[in-house]
Design brief:
Blueprint: H1 2-8, E1 15-22, E2 28-35, H2 46-58, H3 63-69
Antiparallel strand pairs: 1-2
């Protein structure tokens, strides 16, 4: 967690908290999320989407899933 915090700029750039998420079967899990106070919600930048895309490929996520979920 310390390495991820440092990479994400916590606590100077981003804050973090635990949220509940659900998978496709409705199972609930706790997940850490990083967020910026005062930032407006919206479409992620092209650079950020590229980072997410590359991470999804490295993790071996199916190409169809990546196209439907990340690249839309």
């Amino acid at each position: 967690m310390k390495k991820l915090d440092r990479y994400e700029g916590y606590p100077n750039v981003y804050q973090r908290k635990i949220v509940m998420v659900k998978d496709d079967d409705g199972n609930e899990y706790e997940a850490w999320v990083y967020y910026r106070e005062g930032e407006k919600e919206g479409i992620p930048s092209r650079e950020y989407r590229k980072t997410i895309f590359e991470g999804a490929k490295e993790c071996g996520l199916p190409e169809d899933y990546i196209k439907e979920s990340i690249l839309k």
